[in-house]
Structure formats: C-alpha cells, structure tokens
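Re-run requested by the PI after the first attempt was lost when the workstation crashed. Everything re-entered from the original request form. Ligand of interest: 4'-deoxy-4'-aminopyridoxal-5'-phosphate.
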Amino acid sequence: MAIHLARRMARVEPNAIGELLALGADPSIISFGGGYPDPTLFPAEALGQVMAEVIAAPGGQSMQYAPSDGLPELREQVAALMRADGTPCNAADVLILQGSQQGLDFAARMLVDPGDVIVTEDPTFLGGRIAFDPCEPVYAPVPMDDDGMRMDVLEHVLKTRPKVRMIYTIPEFQNPTGVTLSLERRHRLLELANAHDVVVLEDTPYRQIRFTGETLPTLKSLDTEGRVIHLGSFSKVLVPGLRVGWAVAAPALRAKMALLKLANDTQTSTLNMAATSLFLKKHDLDAHVATLRAAYARKKAVMLDAMRRHFPQDVAVTDPEGGLFTWATFRDGFDATAFMRDVALPEARVAYVPGGSFHPVTERANTARFNYSAQSEARIEEGIAALGAALKRHA
Ligand code: PMP
C-alpha cells in the first residue's frame, strides 16, 4: 500500500541521535545524555498526598473536563509566580499547557508558514526544531558566545532575510550550552525585534534553577509591545511527568493559542492541574527549588572538576550559572558522534549527546552536551574519569 503522506511529514523523521541515545539506556552505561531532573529529588510524598486529596474532593471536579485555558486557580497562581519573578502578569494572560513543549508547537503553528524564517540560537534545543519542523520553516541560526545569541549577527539576519516570523531563544542556562543571555543583549534583542516587527518566543524551563549570579529580567518583562510569548514549566521545579507548563502572551496571541489548545488536546489534564495547584497552595515551592538549586550546583561543580582533572587540556567546557547542562568543545577534527559510537559507549560505557544535532543547519562535529542533574555525584566522577581516560587513549 502506498500511503500518501502530507508534505509536512517529510520533515517529521526519526533522529539518528535518538538511536544512539537509546543505547545509553543500558543501566551499565553512565549516561550524561538525557535532560532528566534527579528523581531522588522529586517531592513524591507531597505529590501523592495532593493527588489523593484532589481526587477525594466532593463533586469529582478534578476528574471532570476543565476550560481550555486551564483551571482558573492555577492560572492565578502562575500569574502570581510571574509577578514575584518581576514580570507583570494577570491570570487572564496565562494559558496552561501540557508542558512548555506544547507552546513551541503552538507558537510555530500560529506564526509560521512554509518557507518563513525562524531565528534560533546556534546551537539550539533539539525539541524546538522537532516542534517547528512540521511548519516547514527555514532556519536562520545565530551563533552564540559567552553572553548568548550574538546581536550583531541577529541584526544582520533581520536586515537581510525577508519573512522572519519568530526569534526563538532560551535566555537562561540554555539547552544545550548552559549559556545565559546578558542583560544588555536582552534589551538589544527587543529593540531589534521591535524595529523589525518580529515575535520573540522566550523559553524558560531552567530559569528558577540558578546557582550563582543575579536573576536577570525576563524578556517578557522588558516587552513594551506585546511581542514576547513567554513559556514556563513546572517540569524542572516540580516533576516533568505532570506535564504542566504555561504560556504568557498578549491577548490576541494568547486567544489564538487557546484555540489551538482546544483543537489539539481540549485542555491539560484536570487532575494534574488540580494537583499542581494544591501543591502550590500547601507546600513551599521556593524552599523546594532552593533544595534543587543546591543539589544541582554541587553536581555541576563535581562534573566540571572531574572534567578539569580527567579530560585532555584542549577540551573547553562552559561553566553554567544554572540549569542542567554543560557544553564541551573538543579539538578541531574530533567527531563526537563517531567517538560515542566507537569508543565512549562500548569501551568507556559512557553516553553524552553529540553536539551536531543541536545545530539547525550545519552539523558541527566536535561538540557535545553533558547533563549533570540525572546521575549521582559518584557516578559523575566515575563516568567522566572513564571518558577522560578513553579520550586520552584515542587522542
Ligand atoms: N524547552 C527546553 C529548552 C527544554 O529543555 C525542554 C525540556 N527538556 C522543554 C522546552 C520542554 O519542557 P516541558 O514540556 O517538560 O515543559
């Protein structure tokens, strides 16, 4: 049978990296590949209690359908979290999503026709591209340095490329590099977006997980024209399995996204929204986040210290101020994909994500993303030592 697939499906393809990472799921392999939070830090008992409580509530409301926008009390709580973080926000501005991933999909569907341009950081979050690809965009990747996306290159892109519809950025502790967009560049990015009338998609799943340095204002808080769509998530500060995230956007954009939400999945799980809401009411989220920050800061320090001791001198790694990842750049000519397949997995029994797949256009080979949140401190030391020894053996 020859099934005719829609044209957009041509870009909906499995990723070679997925196959390689599947090998890393073997428990005898120390994987720095995933982006998972540490499950030993999940507030399981508290979540179990709030889940039971919302189910037992009279009227069965938590098991009923709910508005597409999300449960009103949760929208109010999210708005309060946004305000406490310095971003003006009312419950009416909030759309509850099934994870922030859903917001990436909605933003592209709302704004991007085939052939339109999406500006991304280079490298960028692979899940962003996976969400955008069915809209058949052309990517304009903008290189980064230690202060995030380079504004001189962004300016050039906006001046020379027609049909730029969206600038996608992860301003804090970016996935995959761990880099944070500086304050000066936040202002400049909005200046440029305003001048060229482009929407900014601000993706902030790691924002709360800051170890050092000052919290910088969200792009949304600096937005004077209602052109920033802000995405937030409970995945990293609570648990990813709840699949609860949110978008904050100007009324016209938010309303369109709510209609996509209705078409897509009617609403986020009422049970999960109700449990999240009750958790926020009964427990101290800030105290929990403080615990996460301390634990991930320690793990990052263990990983970077191990890399300094075990990796060859010519490997450069970023030192993130928060989040879950560091980014390694190996010597010119090094092929991180081949090394993982031929040496890291079979010999050192260690997995990472080769960096090539994070580059939207040119697949650069000599980079890799390392996650430090998922493994214990002892396994981080053990895995980095094994990988370092293998790198030196095969130098
Ligand atoms: N954006 C970025 C940059 C991410 O790293 C992730 C998850 N790894 C997401 C969005 C999606 O997160 P969620 O859907 O769980 O909120």
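Saved to the shared folder this time. The chain has two domains: 7-42+287-394, 44-282.
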